[in-house]
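Minutes, methods subgroup
Present: GH (chair), OT, SY

1. OT presented the first of two proteins processed in the latest run. Sequence and structure tokens recorded below as shown on screen.
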Amino acid sequence: MKIRFVILSFFCICINAFSQSNRIELKGSVSFISSQNVYVKFVNTDGIQIGDTLFIQKNNSLKPSLIVNNLSSISCVCTPIKGMQLSITNELIAKKRIEIPLEVIAEKSNESVAVTDLAIKNKPTETSAENKARFDGRLSISSYSNFSANPLSTNTPNYRIRYNLALNAEHIANTGLAFENYISYTHTLNNPLEKFKDLKVYNLALRYDFGKTASISLGRKINVNTANVGAVDGLQFEKKFKNITIGALMGTRPNDSTYGFDSKLLQYGAFISHNIQNELSSVQTSIAFFNQTNNLKTDRRYIYLQHSNSLLKNVDLFGSAEIDLYAVENTIPITNFSLTSLYLSLSYRPVNNLSLALSYDARKNIYYYETYKNKIDSTLEKETRQGLRFRFNYRPFKYFSWGGNAGYRLQTPTSNESMNAISYLTFSKIPLIDASITLTGTALQTANLSGFIYGASMSKEFGNISAEVEYRKALIFAQDIAELSLSWRLSKSLMISTDFEATLEHGETSGRVFLIISHRF
């Protein structure tokens, strides 16, 4: 009955929003013109990518004017299209790419979305000089259902509805008060034993800014200066001195298994961070000390290091490490120096149509957003996250790209040696049908599994509707998967996505339906 209600709501919203405009545009202005480049400044460049075209308004139409060669959080470095003459007074328009909700990204990605990685990616930009009240948010309702065509199947049908709410309020009542949160609740239908254990609070905090140099926050929050440490439930204080930021954190850490509040896991720490940022480059370095307890007994004591920079042209570096200072030998606490967690990521774009990335992941205790995946994706996630990974993407000519990644994980006391390689070919504009086709291949070798996965997908846009069909065959499990996805941008703030997947394994067919309604306000 509840599923019928969700579906009915889906169609009601569609009818109400059908006539609304789908155009999503960002407006910027020329800030500087050199002999070779044009610099365009935006409020932010979210949704703009290298290689995109910027337009000027002329005679009630958009005329291509610039190609984006590089960008920062608020500025683009562009090359004029041949024959275009621009001045400082020109206004430029960027066509923002459709933003897929986080739930859809997590659902369709082979690489899980981690809370800490998301905090790093979405770290806040410099705040506006004006203390004007600002509020935005996103509410989404998604339903997930899986079923089997065989009534005798051991796979029990599963029906879930997930509610997600994200809010961000700055300068409430034109003061220094701010509020931020991201919560998710998953409701399993026909489950009388269900409690609120599936309520996940990823971010819930009040913050007060004392001018531009100091702030204090209360609640659950990931500090971007110590992102891979994870969330802290408690008080956080920061003070800036030009390029230096110092801070202290005190509270508890979330329970490792449930991500819920746990009063027994008291922790405290302090950090110092150095940050330099301009329009085209940034450098950030943090060092922190943390002491974690369990029932007031020392559980872990360590130093956390984090560094990121884009000092070199077309090169981005991020790294984090944890060095443990505490150990117990023969029931006696001792001071110890041991590198226990390390993550390094280096990306390089030697030319505009080629990007390379190399990463090494030896992090622990990464808490992922809950997702519902098939056996293929679950196996790839488990076997490919940690270890050494190389990624590349090459566009030798227009509408064609070749990319992939290869990973290797060493044998450790807690994990087995494994190797994997994934490659894809994408033709982004097939003549006559104006569609995109991608061919993929995956090779996986672990202690228990060895084999290949290959597949193909085709996607096409019909105005404000995007459609994709995909087929994958896993020789590892003798498993075949067919998938159909639709995304409909009804307005600037409203989006609906649905995904249907059918799996054939050992003669048994099962299915999965995923539906999400996402509204920004």
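2. SY then presented the second protein from the same run.
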Amino acid sequence: MTTDAAVAIEYPSQSSGPAKPRVWLPVTLMVIYWAYILISNMSEMPMFSRFLSQMGAFIVVGLIFLIWWLFNRRVKWADKFIVLGAAIASPVLAKALSDKTVGPFPIMNGLPLVFTGWALWMLLAQKARYGVWRGGLIVMIFLSTAIFTLIRMEGLHGAGMPDVYWRWQKSAEEDYLARRNPTTAPAQAKGGTVALRAGDWPGFRGANRDGVVRGVSINTDWNKSPPRLVWRHPIGPGWSSVSIVDGRLFTQEQRGEHDVVVCMDAATGGEIWSHDESGRFWDPLSSAGPRGTPTFDNGRIYAQGATGTLLCLDAAGGNKIWSRDVLADTNAKMPDWGVCSSPLVTHGLVVVYGAGQGGKGLIAYRCESGDVAWTVNAGMYSYSSAQLATIGGQEQVLFISDAGVVSVEPASGKVLWKYDAPGQPPRSLQPLMVGEGKILVQLGLESAADLIDVAKNGDAWSATKIWTTKNLKSPFNDFVLHEGYIYGFDNTIFACVDAKTGEKKWRKGRYGTGQVLLIADQGVLLVLSDKGKVALVAAKPDDFQELGAFEGIEGKTWNHPVIAQGRLYVRNSQEIACYEVK
């Protein structure tokens, strides 16, 4: 009789109302796990560090949960493996049935939901019959990941949180393409020639690629007279900024299966011309669209799409002069987050990153013909763009990659010096000159930034580290320099750092993962948040001071803002707007 009772406990019958597993341990585990998720998401922990810590937390919790389950004497061995099989099948099935934009998230995020549903059902069904308890547990496990089949994603926000919509909702791109009826530019805007004027903005982060607006004063009393909206239009996906030349605005966007370079009337937003190239890049983290910004030079537009096509177009009419497939020229595979290089034009050459092997990382094409002029080994991974600088009286092209920093003689492609700092991608920021021969280099997502000193002794160049700071761990947000102080993002918080020492002066502005411009003549910073908010901040090291703010555009905003000819231009992957800021 004693034996029969023991068997009844270990293998309970449905009719006798058998005991079920005590659930305090799995429920406690999942409560601890989700409490950690909530706390870590509310903290200022860097995105990838947070992701890794959350994955680690689930691995620990999940292993304890599984050990408890597999060695629990109150569950039949057959049921143990049936439920375990359901726990594995649930996220796999959800992945198969989900929209492609959801990517790997049904697996990565589905398993924690499975374990949560598992623990929750065992808690709620303690008094249910064993058959109901077991069957309901399997149903709950599959329902736990069903949410993934109902949603789609538009990538991640800068802090790593997914941008989620219902699957049946039209995407902003679908809505844009369905309703696209572009405003036509005035007739006088078409044709003629296009020439650079004082106060124009000819390429990525301005003429010097340093994010500095010079010779310009704007109205800074936004409380009394906020910036006036001039025009606002929908636009296709893309993380490109804009170039402003001779009353025209140049940018790039995705239109379905075409990567498009667009020329608009800067005064109205009306389309003057567009040039389409077949190609679409998409990834689950940053979504669709081109990443680079068009560069104007000598009547031409140079633009590189996210799939690697480099275009040389007539700026007046958009006619193609030549094009190159950069990835084919460098024998490179597609980078994980697409080709992000904004072309640099110098010495009659257009320089872009090619991500190639065998010495073909950085590649220069002749502006007139598109022929390859030189190639340089510049690392295997980078999402940065070439930067022109003058050091020791000599012009140089600087470039940051997973290998470190390389300096190249523009005309010949001869390597002048290297700063070896091997590391993992992504490295996406521009090198920042902070004094004669002094260069700030940010060495990757959530990594420290180094200030290096470059000097020439005879014919030999050297690059040595002056200091390293962890106060500028910027994911993909460039810095600016003003009067000896560096301003930019430390993770998701705006900060000021002393350029001499790397010491933090303040860290207070909360603009997500936005971008910044320096209006040098007035000593003010214009910050565009990753949600489209525009703020004016005093460029002062003593304390953070926001002078004014307004909502510029809506939606996830990673694109660099531009000020040209007294107007502010902001865009993201959904809309573009122009404001009067004089």
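Chair's summary of item 2: The chain has two domains: 2-166, 172-580.
Next meeting: continue with the remaining queue.
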